[in-house]
Amino acid sequence: MGRHALxxxxxxxxxxxxxxxxxxxxxxxxxxxxxxxLQEYRTExxxxxxxxxxxxxxxxxxxxxxxxxxxxxxxxxDAVPYRDAWYETGADGSRTARYMEYPVVTGGFQxxxxxxxxxxxxxxxxxxxxxxxxxxxxxDVTAIWLAAAWLVVVWxxxxxxxxxxxxxxxxxxxxxxxxxxxxxxxxxxxxxxTGALLALRRDRPVWAGVLLGIGGAAKLxxxxxxxxxxxxxxxxxxxxxxxxxAWTIGAAVxxxxxxxxxxxxxxxxxxxxxxxxxxxxxxxPDSIWYSLYWFTGWSGFDGPLGDGQSPTVLNAVxxxxxxxxxxxxxxxxxxxxxxxxxxxxxxLTVAAFLLxxxxxxxxxxxxxxxxxxxxxxxxxxxxxxxxxxxxxWVPRMYQYLGVANKGLPPEPFLVTVLVRDAVVVxxxxxxxxxxxxxxxxxxxxxxxxxxxGPRTSRPVPPAVAASPVTVPARGGRRRRDxxxxxxxxxxxxxxxxADGRAGAPAPWPSxxxxxxxxxxxxxxxxxxxxxxxxxxxxxxxxPAGCDDRSMADDxxxxxxxQQRLRERVEAALxxxxxxxxxxxxxxxxxxxxxxxxxxxxxxxxGATGAGRLAEEVAFVLTRRARSLRAHSxxxxxxxxxxxxxxxxxxxxxxxxxxxxxxxxxxxxVLGLLDDYPTRSGYVITPVVLWAGGAGxxxxxxxxxxxxxxxxxxxxxxxPRFLTIPESDAPVIQVPLFDRYVHAPTGAVxxxxxxxxxxxxxxxxxHLEQPVFAWR
Length: 775
Known about the structure:
The chain is α+β, with helices and mostly antiparallel strands. Helices cover 43% and strands 10% of the residues. The strands form five sheets. Strands 5, 6, 9, 10, 11 and 12 form a six-stranded mixed beta sheet that branches. The chain has a three-stranded antiparallel beta sheet with strand order 8-7-13, with no helix packed on it. Strand 1 (40-42) and strand 2 (48-50) form a beta hairpin. Helix 11 packs antiparallel against helix 12 (241-266).
């Protein structure tokens, strides 16, 4: 991943595959760390037994709950969880019936692995398959599932923030994964919760709720995320947020009930074991309460407890403190200057639960890993926390040995617990500061999880202008089906991802490309500020806020106003005169193909010519047709490759004609911006065109699915610049609506904004693209 590495530019070594490889390596190391506890030896009677002699599980720090639970909970004897009991003998010789102590999904997961173990051993008796003790095979079968679950977590984080794959690398390389991926069954729950975040990002609130409900039936913490979902939904209620939150919460509750109800009805006593255990267990050594008792000598809220006696007062205190903490998080979400990111609130909610709870098993820290990376993507801070948290395992294991067996006293372990808690509190403080002062959040998108825009009867495009401008790497002059997209023609210099990758929400598409609104779908959402509603013949869907008259430029904006606006743009472009425009050198063009991308301008209906250019002039943005073979559904500025003998101006006008049906003569060219050499092997020339008065755009259905005309005010925002280890040049991110646009698209839009709207001869060719565009 160094600055000269080819990762991201190779067809095979994409960022996703590299990050998954990192995860596989760390998971393999995690399995090797537990392998010392899988050793076998022969007893005096010649039988094979698991070698946990001399407290090997603590000395080698390889302990895993999966090993003792296999025998303890009757899985080795084909016991059915929640139906079949096992018995625990007390100090007075009494016997108490015990059942599977985990929630239903985790209990079923253990039972499934036990059955797979029996099946493997049956096959090993008949086929030349590797085998070992049942418990060893059971651990390995479980480990395969747990490893696959963590790979899902890593994949989901990449999909949530593809413009920053190194964040997902932090999830993959986490020291907590190496230590605790196979300590218990929590990676399964984390995969369900993170998958729910991805489903929500893709505007699938029902699926998000189902995954959260199933995750809550595996471990409790996914249900905690429902509070942030409600808070973000309320803050974004004008954008369909409450509808999304309601669907998510409702689906989560129904999924949780659907999973739990059959078991609760069939075996109510066994099903209630999880709740009984959590009510009666005292403060765990990993909790802040235990450290408080130990270092102060205080006997606790309940005093000395007998066997099976519930710490009633402690339970009440932790419950009240959690309610107060959640209320504080709700107040923070409601008072924040802008809607907080879902990951921020989810991190605070889960962290508060762990800090105040009377139990913090070491593997619970895995719950925070993807949330922390999405909420606070700061490598040094998060690695420091993860390292400290992972190191808690060392004194924890050695204090179990006891001082008499060359172990450690409890104090070193409890001190590391307090240090871990302090670091988590510090992370929470930073997240709160970030929520209250969002401009101080480096490397953070406005919202990597919550979908943007109102819900519709069909999936809402999660992003516009998501990735850098892409240009076709191969392809012919023209496809027979009329497409000229990336990979098969010249379209693509303005193409951008439509899969949620760091993009902006789509403004309302033109009337020419949407069906008439069906009242059964609910009220039509209003178009964003300044977005025009283009006229077209035939049935159309008219978004709320469009008037009944034709919205054609020729009708709404008089010729004299259009001429005035055009002259103002031309005058502004003189800030970058042709003699000073940066044309790509021969060295820059070596091995690269020429392409053009257009900023096609037209007046906003109702413009007077005397207002701000940013509010009276719009630019054309399109969405590529789904029928195209390559890059279908992506957002684009009209443009593409130059044909032999063409100039950039000619190519730009031709592409505008082919894509949106506007015939623009040479007199429509207002000027050029600086050439931009891309990492994908092209030199892009931005061409500024005036399309006002040329008629209404008529998108070519073979190439364009939807037409958009946002005002220039949408790009009149300060960009931010990120540093990456692969390059000395800064990566530009231009805000567009509620997302960010990278170079080259971001560079083109930024220079246009600087030159035309602010009269600054800003240069952008030196600005870097994100690594995922290096291909």
